[in-house]
Amino acid sequence: MKRTLISELKENEEAKISGFLEKIRDTKYMVFAVLKDMSGTIQVSIDKEANKDLVAKLEGIIASSVASFTGKMVKSEYVKQGGREFIPTSLEILSSSASLPLDATANIDTRLDYRWLDLRSDKNNLMLLCQSALVDGMRKYLVNEKFTEIHTPKLIGAASESGSDVFEVKYFDRTAYLAQSPQFYKQMAIASGLEKIFEIAPAFRAENSNTNRHTTEFTSFDIEMAYIDSYLDVMDLEENILIAGLTNVKNLYGDAVKELFNVDIIIPTKPFPRIKLQDLYQELHKRYNYEIPEHDIGDMNAEAENLTGRFAKEVYGHEFIFVTDFAKTKRAFYHMRDNDIPQGYDLIWKGTEITTGAQREHRFDVLEKQAKEKGLGKDVEFYLQFFKYGCPPHGGFGLGIDRLNMLMLGLPSLKEEMFIFRGPNRLNP
Ligand code: AMO
Known about the structure:
alpha+beta; CATH 2.40.50.140; 18 strands; five-stranded mixed beta barrel; BirA Bifunctional Protein, domain 2; 2 domains; binds aspartyl-adenosine-5'-monophosphate
């Protein structure tokens, strides 16, 4: 018999259901089990006298084992769980569980050691469903706008962002690097005539930082598009993509997110507020008496981001805010500059940076000069070639999916949010 999902059971129809045994309760005349599959849970009620063989099969079986029952679903006003129960006529234990190494009091590191068990909770299941819906909404928006999804290499010959936080990999008799970003290749796609592209893929950063927002491997949502007039076009696109993603999550899971995470998913209004870095510094000083430290001048840091989130909320009633006009010394060489000001932005959501975006320098001579200025030589030679034989003006952005979902659900850290977290001290499971 084919398996039926618990949510699709029809009253009094013979069916087979399979899933995890969430609870088993043995009473005088009855055994009550709760079975859970991807669609929901149901109470399985076993009359001990009438089903001695089933009861025998359950001997020594504990919750967390995997079982299949055949029988019928009936409605019952006595059952709290949705007013239905399953009356089985046969049982097969598909996999029996050892006693669980984890309970509700386990700390996050123990939970990560047994992440597959930790992810079984309703809350963590929902968290991954939300991440999937978020990406799906964003992807559908782009495909609809005629963007092409590409897949760029993650093993590369040269660092793509700053050289300091790149992982080295032994590559036969030479050294390769793990891509920190698809930056160079998404621009290559523009030089290839693809005009509008995106990629959703891992990015690696050898950052030895243990913050709630850093991981050594994250999923980057990258786009690049040609024939923009300025980085403002990129910002407009990002607003639309985020609205599409958040709307999809809200439509599918808004109520469940409210119930399990106590968070309202707010669909942002357009345009998102925008502010120049120098003006922001003044506001942060005036309102919160915050002074950016000397070494961060021209840039942001975690505290400034946090206060910027507060500022956006208080002044604009908005969760998002674009910050522009960073110092050229603090931005990548490939950002186009106008009067020495990089033509790009960071997007802050709820006080955390989620994106860097920019118009790129597509003029070979200027780009070469900017690379040299940053001390980049041989490493970017291959990349510079992309601009030698004609390349349209273009821009794009990179968005961290993990940070996005973490902030959307109000989770305290990427450790909680990621399917599997990778950090300086964690390579397992
Ligand atoms: P940037 O380095 O700012 O820009 O990264 C873009 C976005 O990626 C996410 N991110 C991270 N998430 C988790 N852990 C990390 N260690 C981490 N590092 C970055 C953040 C960040 O905003 N090439 C440019 C993008 C572009 O211009 O298109 C780049 O990589 O959400």
